[in-house]
Amino acid sequence: MINVAILGYGTVGSGVYKIIKENNSHISRRAGDDISVKYVLDLRDFPGDPVEEVLVHDVNVIMEDEEVDIVVEVMGGVEPAYTFVRRALESGKSVCTSNKELVAAHGAELLEIARENNVNFFFEASVGGGIPIIRPLIECITVDHIEEIQGIMNGTTNYILTKMEDEGADFDTVLKVAQDKGYAERNPEADIEGYDACRKIAILTSLAYEKQVNYEDIYTEGITKITTDDFKYMKKLGTSIKLLGIARKVLGITYSMVAPFVVYPDNPLYGVKKVFNAILVKGDMLGDVMFYGKGAGSLPTASAVVSDVVDAVKRNGYTASIYWNKEKRILGGADAFTTPYFVRVKGVNIKDKIQAAFGDVEYIELDDKLAETETAFMTKVLSGSEFDQAASDFEVISRIRVSK
After folding, report:
1. Is the dihedral of CA 347, 353, 355, 357 positive or negative?
2. Which of 181, 226, 299, 304 is the most buried (most CB within 10 A)?
3. pTM of the complete model
4. Annotated active-site residue in 163, 200, 249, 282
5. Backbone φ, ψ for residue 88 (5° rounding)
6. Whose CA is closest to 76, among 100, 94, 105?
7. CA-to-CA separations, 336 to 223, 249, 254, 287, 387, in angstroms, rounded
8. 235 catalytic residue (yes or no)
9. Over 90: is that where the pLDDT of 244 sits?
10. b or e along 230-264 (b: 16 or more beta carbons within 10 Å of the residue's beta carbon)?
11. Of residues 328, 290, 162, 149, the one with CA closest to residue 234
12. Residue 317: what pLDDT?
């Protein structure tokens, strides 16, 4: 019998409890041992909920019980989750988590503690929710050098951009709809400013290139400056705009970034709509492979967590090899990151000036009143610093990087 304790009975925690209870025979068969939830930790009471049978309010009950084999941490945030997870690992209990903040900040350290105690620290659900990406990255795509990762990693922002594109609605209107539908929090800052995606790409960059990438070092730009006018040009081009997390290694330099990108139809991420997420991995041998599905929600995320529980049971007695060193990886800056740019500047009849500053460009002309006040164009590939220098004499209305 494998005893599991769940820390947190919120959206994901309740999903984990439900899956283990309702699919118990299937899960136990796959794990090769019976799995049971012995405790659920939460500060709240849940009158009438079946969880009352195993509910505790004191974490010490779990940490001091030698019969608890696996701890599922789904509380969110760095503290007290970090303290609890570290204590569990040091007590010889494997830990499975969906907590991206925790993993991004302390993943390498917690993996080391797990190795020292011959247990496992698994975090499949921390990046793609229900999308399997961590295990494929560390176990399946093992012979390739990862050239690039591109991901739509936040369903809220993808929903907002989809509605703006398909319905011509403005950002503020769509954000309110997303909040009313429960896709966005009352305080949506973490989503719309790109912070959520930043934690996730920090984890993937650390795993792909095997050293600690601090999320504070990642250039992060949200979607609040994207307008319906931008999408008018996208329609003309036959392109879309997506908030992407990017990890890239070029000539020995690692880059990581979160920002809106123009995406062309030949990119598999182009067709990812609404609240769906997708992560595109480019290997030097494999080529392109994409992982697609629901990146959040109670049961999709809980499904990934419980899959980690099954894996932890199978690996009882030895630690999985996950290469993520605590040594910090220095990132190349956004000023050196190269990409074409979609640009809108104030003014008309200024093509000679644009040509002098940017070199050859592709102009995008609309049969619209916008053509009376601004000029839009697509640049060649430029570094961030080259773009800033070229744009310094213009009043830039909009500037969006282009995924190629």
Report:
1. negative
2. 304
3. 0.95
4. 200
5. -65, -45
6. 100
7. 22, 12, 11, 25, 10
8. no
9. yes
10. bbbbbeebebbbbbbbbbbbeeeebbbbbbbbbbe
11. 162
12. 87
